[in-house]
């Protein structure tokens, strides 16, 4: 091969190349090597790498390691130029497999490290902004009575935010009281239609014979008792905005077919009318029913189901996101305190008891309970004994575990009643500073309370009054 061609090729390489003989004498370096390392050929060629290393001209010599071990060596290090490079030194052998030299390939990776650092910083910023967006979204939905901490609700809100910018039909599913209407209002408020009407239609509350006229309106003289000028329906009132078809699973089959036509044609005919009204409406449907099963049972049209189920969103029940319960409790109390200018709080034990409840009525039931406690509490802090009996009873039953040494002859109801009594007495003793006041709160005499304390082996430390009564 032409030596000039070979030298020219190496000089054109963007990687730095250093070639030494079998004794470590430098015989060649290319221009890229000079640029990367900051070393010039005049101070390198004809010099031994060992001498250069000892004099501090270079800070590492991989080629000497190859000469010693006869193996390829790679490392990342910083040259005197300040540039970081990946260097790989490889043995050069003759046809007899004898070492005759070493070639060192050096690649500048300073830019790669810089890009890596930039990427790391970008990831940190992205995470920071993501957390900030999450925090702002939580504040935003909190203003709309959507309070959450759980990952399940976070994913639900993220999906709602994502679809809010589009006109696609949304089907919100979830048990009664989970907040389907609040979520639909959130989607509307985040959409380009937020300044336009938001109309809610409770499909379960409209009499069957009025469904058509309520949804689609009626023209003059459409039926006896109709207004002379006619009346627009809910769809017309929601034009350019959003209509929520709440409890859509309650729609009668004849109305379902007419609703399907309205969704497909984007126009509506009033009852008794001959002229269609063009519609530009975002449709959100909500239901606590399993519409798939309703379709199988013949109660809901399959084609309408697919029209509504473009973007499905399911709100998980409260029992599947218990970490949201303390947040909701505090939120509802704050609302009531602002409204009635009070400062009612709630004890941690009461919060824990409420958090362990199954909440079949979900958020709506929880809000009603908090309002009840707010009104009925005799003190400025709601205590566990203020909770409704049904919640305390369920908590005791859920926590009931029979030990091996318990008498199986004792009926479970008797055991639970005694456990409940013990629970109430312990709370009373912790809540009041003296036996007399605790007994007064429980509506029993101090001597009766002492007997109960002895029966249930309840020890109250540092209470001389109780000790005296026991003696």
TrEMBL record:
UniProt domain Sigma-54 factor interaction: residue ranges: 146-375
Origin: domain of life: Bacteria
The keyword Transcription regulation belongs to this UniProt entry's keyword annotation: yes
Alphabetized Gene3D superfamilies for the sequence: 1.10.8.60, Homeodomain-like, P-loop containing nucleotide triphosphate hydrolases, PAS domain
SUPFAM superfamilies (alphabetical): Homeodomain-like, P-loop containing nucleoside triphosphate hydrolases, PYP-like sensor domain (PAS domain)
Limits of the PAS domain: 2-54
Record carries keyword Nucleotide-binding: yes
Database matches in CDD domains: AAA, PAS
Coiled coil: none
InterPro entries, per the entry: AAA+_ATPase, AAA_lid_NorR, Homeodomain-like_sf, HTH_TyrR, P-loop_NTPase, PAS, PAS-like_dom_sf, PAS_fold
Signal peptide from the UniProt entry: none
Keywords assigned by UniProt, alphabetized: Aromatic hydrocarbons catabolism, ATP-binding, DNA-binding, Nucleotide-binding, Transcription, Transcription regulation
PANTHER family per UniProt: C4-DICARBOXYLATE TRANSPORT TRANSCRIPTIONAL REGULATORY PROTEIN DCTD (PTHR32071:SF57), TRANSCRIPTIONAL REGULATORY PROTEIN (PTHR32071)
The protein's name in its UniProt record: HTH-type transcriptional regulatory protein TyrR
